Automatic annotation (TrEMBL):
One of its GO terms (molecular function) is rRNA binding. GO terms for cellular component: ribonucleoprotein complex; ribosome. It comes from the Bacteria. One of its GO terms (biological process) is translation. This is Large ribosomal subunit protein uL4. Belongs to the universal ribosomal protein uL4 family. HAMAP family: Ribosomal_uL4_B. The keyword Secreted does not apply. Keywords: Ribonucleoprotein, Ribosomal protein, RNA-binding, rRNA-binding. Part of the 50S ribosomal subunit.
Length: 208
C-alpha cells in the first residue's frame, strides 16, 4: 500500500512510502485486540482499594449483651458486620489487576489495529519535523494544516521529542509518543494516526 508523504504545512512532498502489507494489510484479529486492550486498561488500575474487616475496626471486644434470653439474635462484638460501624464482610483488598498476554498475541493485536486504520484511510504520513520550543500554538497550526484539528489524534515520532510531547500535553484530544509508546488501545482510540516518515522503518523492525 502506497501513501503520500506530507509536509507539516499539509502540502504534498511528491514522495510516497510503501506501507508493508504484513503490518498494515493483515486480516485483523479481534480477539487478540480484545486481550491486548483489556491488559492495557487493567494495568492502568491502581488496585489500592481497601476496606476494614472486623479484626481491623477500632472498638471494644466486650460482649454487648448476654447470650440468651434477650429475644434477639446473639451478638459477641460491636465490631460485627451486622452492626452499623462494624467491619465489612469480604471487602476489597489491594491487588494487582495485571495479567499476562503472550508477545505474539500483543504483536498481532497491534498489527491488527494498524491494519484497521490503514483500511479506514486514517493514516497520515508526515516528514520528520521538530519544534524549536514547546508551543501548543505551533502544534495546533500543524494539526490544522493536516485537517485533523479537533479530532482525537495519535502522532508516532521516530524518537523521543521533548518539545513535541510538551506541546501536546495540554491538548485533550492529541497525544504524541515515540515507537515505545505504540499500543493497541491508543491506536484504535484515535480518529487519525499520524506517522512520522522516520518512524516507519522502526515500526517495520518492531514487527519483524
Amino acid at each position: 500500500m502506497e501513501i503520500s508523504v506530507l509536509r507539516p504545512d499539509g502540502t504534498d512532498t511528491g514522495r510516497k512510502v510503501e506501507l508493508q502489507d504484513s503490518i498494515f494489510a493483515i486480516t485483523p484479529n479481534d480477539h487478540a485486540i480484545y486481550l491486548d486492550v483489556k491488559q492495557f486498561l487493567a494495568n492502568q488500575r491502581q488496585g489500592t482499594h481497601k476496606s476494614k474487616e472486623r479484626a481491623e475496626i477500632s472498638g471494644s471486644t466486650k460482649k454487648i449483651k448476654k447470650q440468651k434470653g434477650t429475644g434477639t439474635a446473639r451478638a459477641g462484638s460491636i465490631k460485627s458486620p451486622v452492626f452499623r460501624g462494624g467491619g465489612r464482610v469480604f471487602g476489597p483488598e489491594p491487588r494487582d489487576y495485571g495479567f499476562k498476554v503472550n508477545k505474539k498475541v500483543k504483536s498481532l493485536a497491534r498489527k491488527s489495529s494498524l491494519s484497521y486504520k490503514a483500511t479506514e484511510g486514517k493514516i497520515i504520513v508526515v516528514e520528520d519535523f521538530s519544534l524549536e520550543s514547546p508551543k501548543t500554538k505551533e502544534l495546533l497550526k500543524v494539526l490544522k494544516s493536516l485537517s485533523v484539528d479537533g479530532k482525537k489524534v495519535l502522532a508516532i515520532s521516530s524518537e523521543k521529542n521533548e518539545n513535541l510531547y510538551l506541546s501536546s500535553r495540554n491538548l485533550q484530544k492529541s497525544k504524541v509518543a515515540d515507537i515505545s509508546g505504540l499500543n493497541t488501545y491508543d491506536v484504535l482510540n484515535a480518529d487519525s494516526l499520524i506517522l512520522f516518515e522516520g518512524s516507519l522503518a522502526k515500526i517495520e523492525n518492531l514487527f519483524a
